[in-house]
Design brief:
By secondary structure, this protein is an alpha+beta fold. The chain is built from eleven helices and seven strands.
Length: 294
């Protein structure tokens, strides 16, 4: 088994934060394209890929990625730089009053898509080593999920039903920790785990997936039922506040990424697609669900 960071949950949280910083970076680019305002010298610098939050974090932790998959780690570095080079070219054209080149836009779109896919895969690889039960929520983290998935996938084939992998992420969890402290953050996670367990069917396993994320194996008869289930979870979480000290309550929202499992698709690939759907939901405003394309 590869040697990973001692605190896997923290490492995953840092990875998510680095991806979130990348999403914020893309909003700066959009403002440049629409308003023709400078995106910042760090974006226009020839070494922009080393100056951004993600680039700095990845290089500081690259050894962990290389242990898991050295070739893919090298590819992350390549596509990340390609993405920055394309955006620098586009922004320079816009700031001089000329439209950006289509080739640069295509390079940016392709490299960003590949980058997010690689990071989703690495996240799956990292979490696949965490075979233990979470002492905070009493949910399984990784233990048994492959076995459960294989059984449910076989059952779905036999009964001609559908199986979805759903990743559930707490919206704006970091500000909760920063404002109220980690003990309240822990209470939020326990509360959410209990709320989800009460609202899901007994034969639909729920796992603590990492950080503020949970993974749910959803069995249903149709895509319509899957959407209804996702909306039900959003509603239940949104209407079940967390009691904290001094009669104060916190109201939570979550974002869900869903991916329908193919009849013979392996678990890692389904999780990867669900994770990308989750990132799409987070970048589009949170408090929603997104279903990945099959």
């Amino acid at each position: 088994m590869p040697e990973l960071p001692a605190d896997t949950d923290r490492f995953i949280a840092e990875l998510d934060a680095a991806v979130e910083a990348h999403m914020s970076w893309t909003r700066r680019i959009l403002r440049c394209a629409v308003l023709r305002s400078t995106p910042g010298e760090d974006v226009l610098d020839l070494q922009a890929h080393t100056l951004c939050h993600f680039g700095g974090w990845f290089m500081a932790n690259r050894s962990h990625f290389e242990i898991l998959d050295a070739q893919s780690a090298g590819r992350v570095e390549v596509v990340h730089q390609t993405m920055h080079d394309a955006i620098r070219s586009i922004c320079r054209e816009i700031l001089t009053g000329r439209p950006g080149r289509e080739a640069d836009l295509e390079a940016f779109e392709q490299s960003q898509s590949e980058l997010l896919g690689l990071l989703a895969r690495f996240k799956t690889l990292i979490l696949s080593t965490a075979v233990r039960r979470d002492p905070l929520t009493q949910l399984p983290l990784r233990y048994g999920i492959e076995h459960d998935f294989a059984l449910y996938q076989k059952e779905a084939r036999r009964n001609r039903t559908l199986l979805y992998v759903v990743i559930i992420d707490v919206d704006h969890f970091k500000p909760i920790n920063d404002t109220y402290g980690h003990p309240v953050g822990d209470r939020v996670l326990r509360h959410l785990a209990d709320t989800l367990k009460r609202s899901l069917r007994d034969d639909e396993p729920l796992y603590r997936y990492g950080g503020e994320e949970f993974l749910w194996l959803l069995k249903c008869k149709s895509a319509t039922e899957a959407r209804q289930s996702a909306r039900r979870v959003l509603a239940i979480v949104g209407t079940t506040p967390v009691p904290i000290d001094n009669n104060e309550v916190l109201r939570l929202t979550v974002t869900l990424g869903l991916a329908q499992a193919g009849e013979r698709e392996d678990l890692a690939n389904v999780i990867e697609r669900a994770d990308q759907a989750l990132y799409e939901g987070k970048s589009n405003g949170r408090n929603r669900y997104v279903i990945a394309e099959s």
